[in-house]
Amino acid sequence: MGLKELIFGGNVKGLDNTNSAYSGSVQEWLPVKNIIGGVVVTKDRRFVKIIEVLPVNFHLKTPLEQQNIIHCFASYLKIAPNNLQIRVVTQRLDLEGYIAKMRKYYEEEENRLCREMIEDNISEVSYIAANEVTTHRFFIIFQHEPRMKARNNTAPAIAERLGEEAETARRYLDLCGLEVLEPDYMDNAVLELLYEMINKRTGRRVKLPEGVFDMLTSVHGFYGGAS
Residue 134: is its pLDDT beyond 90? Predict the structure, then answer.
């Protein structure tokens, strides 16, 4: 059984409505049916594309650069998919590993003054992690629409068509000075993203191991003939 089967349940290769997930399991309530060519296929037969964008500090740009960014982004919105979402994922910075290491030093330290300094450092870092330091990730999300004509009505063809829409977005956003991340293996990247979103706390500490994708029947971004 491959990793996709473990996460999404059985029969992931097809788009039929068969549901072999156990009652009350993650596979039963998770709305994702499959990932094909870097595109999320939902159980209600929607094809959703997620692209991650690295931001720039708009306020550090010159007035002319700011005007150009606004113009280019407005130009993209005119031809962008109708159902377009801009999602910002904000998380507190995960410093649990650092704090655990400092606590170990605290337990091993014999000098009382050094122990007090370590304890003070743990308290300060814990406060910063809980109240001040956050990380942000930016995503543009859209789905396949009737106006997006694919070469045929198959999942790989629709995924390919959404890839073309993502490339269009990349070109316009590049003019804005924004970089769109382009992972080598899109299926893997989307799978990791879903894992991190479903397991918001655990996903920050426990990453999917590098060799986990060897479990897949089709690996490295190639699934059912789609890349």
Answer: no
Residue 93 has pLDDT above 90, yes or no: no
Nearest-5° Cα angle at 213, 211 to 218: 140
Q: What angle do CA 92, 96, 100 make, to 5 degrees?
A: 165
pLDDT of the residue at 77: 94
- Mark 88-116 as b/e (b = at least 16 C-beta within 10 Å): eeeeeeebeeebeebeeebeeeeeeeeee
Gap between the Cα atoms of 82 and 133, Å rounded: 35
Confidence check: pLDDT of 186 > 90: no
